[in-house]
Design goal:
Layout: H1 3-25, H2 33-63, H3 66-82, H4 90-93, H5 95-100, H6 104-122, H7 126-137, H8 143-166, H9 170-208, H10 215-236, H11 238-265, H12 268-275, H13 282-294, H14 299-319, H15 323-327, H16 331-346, H17 351-374, H18 385-394, H19 398-430, H20 435-462, H21 471-478, H22 480-483, H23 489-511, H24 517-551
Length: 565
Amino acid sequence: MKLNKRISMFISLFFNINKNYFFERYKFLQLKDKNKKILFTFWYIFKSQVFIIGSVLILQFLFKSDMLNTIVIILLLFSMMLGMDAKEWRLFYRFDFVSEIPDIKQRFLTVLLGNVVLKLFVENSLILLSLLLLIYTHISLFYLPLFLIIYIIVYASSLSLFFIIQSSPFRIKKIFSLINYIISFLFTVTFIYLLLDFVITIFITFSNNLDNRNILPTFINQGISVVKNLAMFIINNNIIALVLIVVYVIVVLLLNIFTIKYLEKSSYLDKEDSVYIVDNFIIVKLIKKILSILYRNKPTRLVLINKEFALFTHIYKYNFKDYFFIFIADRSMSFLISIFLIISKYEYSASSLIILLIVPIILLVDINSNVGVKLITNMSFITDYNTLLCSNTSGFDLNKLIKSKLSFYFSVKSGAYIIFILVYNFMYISLNMPLYMIIIGNLLNLVVLNFFPKLYFTNNLIYSRMNYKNYQKYLDESKILDFGVSEFYPLNLIFKIWIIIVFFVLIFTTIIPIVNINILLLISLLVILISILIVYLIMNKINKNIIHFIERGNYSADFAKIFKE
């Protein structure tokens, strides 16, 4: 099979997978297959190209600033680089794809070039973005092909680097995961801190100079000046930049050649599953041993939990990048640290109340990120088709399965949450928070940690299918490992309500300081607790309805299952 036909097959497979998943989620759209293709194509092009390009043109119309649009386009191009992951290589190991293209070199080129075409030219309009970039920067059109070639080569090299790591031994993956964790954590703390500091500076400036009409243009010009200085630095050192790019591409190319040779000579694909066992993970192995002692008198629960550990290690080969985010502390912690540093810097009078209200919001984000994305396979019934069939034939109580998944979740997240509790209590004490507020804050956070993992688990059941014998096929078709699931309306609403509470507290303690802090605390707590109670009752009822549907043999992702028939 020629290379262009293999790439066409790759893109066609991707398109059909996403089309099927799209109409699976929106079953109410009863259309013919031809109309489905037309509608999905229109929606896909609008989402991936028209919307982005339209946004850039609207910015140009509103602000009439070439430099501002240049910054936006650079950010878009940069985000395309950051968006790549090892998950883009799942098809390389998929059995039907292996059978179709058994030669490793050909399969590597197919997946690599297929992803490049798909990500840069189908999902994103690289040529148009590059053309706009040259127009806004007033650079000669002669540089367009050169820029495109350099960008594509760097993108392809970076994508193939993930292939190398994906095919590497555990030690390499863990080292990469740790480095990624440290850099990501520090970058997030720094970025959020600087962003909040910038916003506060703008607010203070506006407050002190309400009659000055040149405030906003001044800040825009300052931002543009920073970008210009950075651009000039790159231009002045373009030879060094090109040399670094060439060295990077050559190193990655050599590593790819070595990796492909290694795969050709070894039986990696045959023995792959055997190496993803609990014994290869020190932390997981330790937690599993502790649970085996705790549940030694509950053999059924222990068997179910051990199944979750085996699943976790198997998913690791797709999700190794997030390994340390699960066990140590997720990015939500970096948000909290940034907010604390900002509050400490500006010595805000109501800082204790703000931190008390923000911590449960951060916890909510953390739970959503882990239950709904990183641990989605464990915290759902995606991989439990056979168990569900067994339950329906033998009368096995599904609540035992749910409890085992929650036990697994709290066990693997225990270290991260202990760190979380220590950190936010340190913040409480360092801000001289009154003892009663410390107690209230800890109790509120424990309520969130206790109830919301199950609520988000129920949320996963709403948006996921459970009838795939081979769950890896579902992971490929749904891209659920990449993006997780949507939030059901009550969960999405409660998050917004809590944000609004913080917003109003900020208003009543800065702009309109007419309400006592203790009264604000009381009102905020009442609203939060009432919202938790309402959401819990709704999601608990939905959980029972879904269980009812499963017991009747309905394993779809249809919204109808949230209502009991």
